[in-house]
Design brief:
The complex is a heterodimer. Chain A is mainly beta. Chain A contains no helices and 11 strands. In chain A, strand 4 and strand 5 form a beta hairpin. Chain A is globular. The model of chain A has no long low-confidence stretch (mean pLDDT about 95). The model of chain B has no long low-confidence stretch (mean pLDDT about 90). The chains are: A mainly beta, B mainly beta. Chains A and B meet through strand 4, strand 5, strand 9 and strand 10 of A and strand 4 and strand 9 of B.
Chain lengths: ~110, ~110
């Protein structure tokens, strides 16, 4: 089965450091999502792209978070500077517009100390 | 965005049918209803979706009320592997592609 690949799987970093999370969507999928999951807030939509163009990033703290798709095979989520409250599991998902069975990756577990 | 309401938790016996309810009273006419589930330590997994008519696939069935203000996910014969958090969500956005998730229902399967 095709998979959404996220790297790294785990990341521990110190407060103030830059963090970059990567996602390889399924080949041919034109819609990519970034979600964040915490016990307190649940699954939050941070941003999503269609055909590499950002459509909605209203869920993302703009001052420290940025999301990009340098090409169709790579989506990145950066946090600079990182803070302890950013500790969460970050999921990437991809799909095809008009078909709603989005596929999620296994997530990146981020711990900021 | 349409809000969904689900029970926090449910229990079911193994090999019995399970009916997971969801209310989405503010749904718009073109919004799709989706169900995803999340097994422990995994990302969410697509289960099923629908617009107006009931839907069936190999995993589950989706029964949608005539007024579309509620829906029910039906697992016909629960197994221990079905223990997960089940999310009901309504898609919005330009192409109905945007999914926002609520707190979901934690389903426990009793052997």
């Amino acid at each position: 089965d095709a998979r959404v690949t996220q790297t790294p799987r785990h990341k521990v970093t110190e407060m103030g450091q830059e963090v970059t999370m990567r996602c390889q969507p399924i080949l041919g999928h034109n819609t990519v999502f970034w979600y964040r999951q915490t016990m307190m807030q649940g699954l939050e939509l941070l941003a999503y792209f269609r055909n590499r163009a950002p459509l909605d990033d209203s869920g993302m703290p703009k001052d420290r978070f940025s999301a990009e798709m340098p090409d169709a095979t790579l989506a990145t989520l950066k946090i600079q500077p990182s803070e302890p409250r950013d500790s969460a599991v970050y999921f990437c998902a991809s799909g095809i517009l008009g078909y709603y069975g989005y596929t999620f990756g296994s997530g990146t577990r981020l711990t900021v100390v | 965005d349409a809000k969904t309401t689900q029970p926090n938790s449910m229990e079911s016996n193994e090999e019995e049918p399970v009916h997971l309810p969801c209310n989405h009273s503010t749904i718009s006419g073109t919004d799709y209803i989706h169900w995803y589930r999340q097994l422990p330590s995994q990302g969410p997994e697509y289960v099923i979706h629908g617009l107006t008519s009931n839907v069936n696939n190999r995993m589950a069935s989706l029964a949608i009320a005539e007024d579309r203000k509620s829906s029910t996910l039906i697992l016909h014969r629960a197994t221990l592997r079905d223990a997960a958090v089940y999310y009901c969500t309504v898609s919005v956005g330009v192409g109905n592609e945007k999914l926002t998730f609520g707190t979901g229902t934690r389903l426990t399967i009793i052997p």
